[in-house]
Specification:
There is one protein chain. By secondary structure, this protein is an alpha+beta fold. It has 5 helices and 27 strands. The strands form 8 sheets. Strands 1, 4, 5, 6, 14, 15 and 16 form a 7-stranded antiparallel sheet that branches. A 4-stranded mixed sheet has the order 2-3-13-10. Helix 1 crosses helix 2. The longest helix has 14 residues. The radius of gyration is 19 Å and the shape is globular. It starts with a strand and ends with a strand.
Length: 287
């Protein structure tokens, strides 16, 4: 089944936190949006807005989520600045676009500090102070933060979401990531554009979209590290799943951990990768 590629850009309207790991009292954020987080946000938005099509019942998060996994695919989304994507790349040191990690953090990161109050003393409750690192909606220079990437729709999803008006109607506003109870992670669509001719590094005539990464070029998604040679860092990637039949079971199930090369890792050889249903890239041997 052929896929159609689209370029999307969103404006960040509130701080964005994509959970990473904790250092002391600080909950770190990733500096990009993984495809799995996009799937979750889009599933929530479609379900909340009454999406139903092709036997998918309205209001059923699980069914809508499966539909999105089957008929949509996403690149990882990165911050964009003046038309340049600030994606990670190892090469002696890790950089995001032209910025060192330190410079990128100064421009785009802030922190949000909270604590619980002890009613008896009307002061901070002992041990409750924590700090959440966020991508700021404005840079240190006062510019609005823009985040963008690629969306792929197959022949089933294209009639439903495959033009700017339909995309904006369903997904013009998204809320993504953690700390949403504080209003974090609000995104507003600026651009949804059909890529009539996909770049040569993509192949869209397969069961899932494929992307080619040449030797010495970076991976731009988490990719299982087994039988894949690269220069970068690895991490065990896992997620949380919610039992939709239980109201008290939010995020109670953990997915199976997969040891992955992280985005920015440089490939030693040219390889093709399939963009999987969960957003992870997996090596694909083409004959």
């Amino acid at each position: 089944m052929a896929w159609q590629m689209y370029t999307v850009k969103y404006e960040l309207r509130s701080p964005l936190h994509i959970g990473y790991h904790k250092v002391g009292n600080v909950q770190r954020t990733r500096y990009y949006i993984p495809a799995r987080n996009l799937w979750a946000a889009i599933t929530e938005a479609l379900t909340r807005r009454g999406f139903n099509t092709g036997g998918v019942p309205e209001g059923d998060y699980a069914e809508v989520g499966d539909w999105v996994k089957d008929h949509c695919a996403f690149s990882y989304w990165f911050i964009e600045e003046d038309g340049t994507t600030l994606s990670p790349r190892y090469g002696g040191e890790l950089k995001y676009g032209r910025y060192t990690v330190a410079k990128f953090e100064r421009l785009y990161l802030r922190s949000h500090v909270t604590t619980a109050l002890d009613a008896a003393t009307t002061s901070a409750e002992e041990g409750s102070l924590h700090e959440v690192e966020v991508i700021a909606p404005y840079t240190q220079d006062g510019k609005r933060t823009i985040i963008g990437g690629l969306v792929f729709l197959d022949g089933v999803a294209k009639p439903v979401l495959g033009d700017e008006e339909k995309w904006r109607d369903w997904l013009g506003d998204l809320q993504i990531g953690g700390e949403r109870r504080y209003g974090f992670g609000r995104l507003c669509c600026l651009k949804f554009q059909n890529n009539d001719a996909a770049p040569e590094e993509y192949s869209l005539e397969h069961e899932r979209p494929l992307v080619r990464v040449r030797g010495s070029e970076p991976l731009l998604a988490h990719t299982p590290a087994n039988d894949l040679r690269g220069r970068g860092e690895i991490e065990p990637l896992l997620g949380r799943q919610t039992d939709t039949k239980r109201s008290d079971a939010f995020g109670c199930r953990l997915t199976k951990a997969t040891v992955c090369w992280i985005p920015g890792t440089l490939m030693e050889n040219t390889e093709w990768f399939e963009i999987g249903r969960e957003g992870m890239w997996r090596k694909k041997n083409l004959r």
